[in-house]
Amino acid sequence: MDPSFFTMGMWSIGAGAIGAAAVALLLANTDVFLSKPQEAALEYLEDIDLKTLEKEPRTFKAKELWEKNGAVIMAVRRPGCFLCREEAADLSSLKPRLDELGVPLYAVVKEQVRTEVRDFQPYFKGEIFLDKQKKFYGPQRRKMMFMGFVRLGVWYNFFRAWSGGFSGNLEGEGFILGGVFVVGPGKQGILLEHREKEFGDKVNPDSVLEAARRIKPQTSASEKK
């Protein structure tokens, strides 16, 4: 066999492999393979069972969170994740203005692993509840697996949070993507629904505040008189 023919064949295989890897990397950085979020209906959110994290936990329907004054709710992907802690801190920076509007700030987690929720609380200035059935992460749960680690946007988010001084750990489930909701009282509905499309895709705090300003608190019959 001609050695030059063999060498040319090896070069062709190598070039093909590099080309295939480049195409795969390019596609991984588009939204082509990302699962599209399904918008949640108000009725779906209202019927979610949540549990308090007290020593004697109480189970209640999620609609209690926003029934009178509306609410801002963060569905935390993983409390130990430094990207989630960054977003929690951003939302907590809005707390003084949300308090002025009379709009409470809450978070839900999908599991309670060791001290993860307690360690998350310094970053989040609202009450935290357990969504054991992971309903706030639906109606169609979306996952980002190892493809997330080849996305340039994710690496940018890593660098942004790390530069901001945030750190974390690898405890708990972190592939089911989270989000942020702003829900009006009564039947006013969902005023903002942000679904995380990749690790660290945090909500714009200005959008949260804008949606919160549109909340119209419920007035009781006695107050109307």
From TrEMBL:
Where does this protein chiefly localize?
cytoplasm
Q: Where does the chain cross the membrane?
A: 6-28
- A Gene Ontology term for the protein's cellular component: cytoplasm
Select a single GO molecular function from the record's annotations and give it: antioxidant activity
Q: Which Gene3D superfamilies match?
A: Glutaredoxin
Domain of life here?
Eukaryota
What Pfam families does the annotation carry? AhpC-TSA_2 (PF13911)
Write the record's keywords in alphabetical order, separated by commas: Antioxidant, Cytoplasm, Membrane, Redox-active center, Transmembrane, Transmembrane helix
**Which compartments is it annotated to reside in?**
Cytoplasm
Similarity comment? Belongs to the peroxiredoxin-like PRXL2 family. PRXL2A subfamily.
Q: Which PANTHER family match?
A: PEROXIREDOXIN-LIKE 2A, PTHR28630
Say what the protein does: Involved in redox regulation of the cell. Acts as an antioxidant. Inhibits TNFSF11-induced NFKB1 and JUN activation and osteoclast differentiation. May affect bone resorption and help to maintain bone mass. Acts as a negative regulator of macrophage-mediated inflammation by inhibiting macrophage production of inflammatory cytokines, probably through suppression of the MAPK signaling pathway.
User: Mind telling me what this protein is named?
Assistant: Peroxiredoxin-like 2A
Q: Which gene encodes it?
A: PRXL2A
